[in-house]
Amino acid sequence: MWRKVDKNLLLLSGGLIAGILIGVIVLFGLRENHWLGSTGNPSGANNLSASSLIGLQAPGFELASLTGHSLKLEDYKGIPVVINFWATWCAPCKEEMPVLQDRYKIYGHRFAILAVNFEEEPKDVQPYIEKLKLTFPILLDSQGKAADLYHVIGMPTTFFLDKDGIVRAMYIGTLSEKKLDDYLKKIGVIDG
Question: 0.70 cut: is pTM over it?
Answer without folding.
Answer: yes
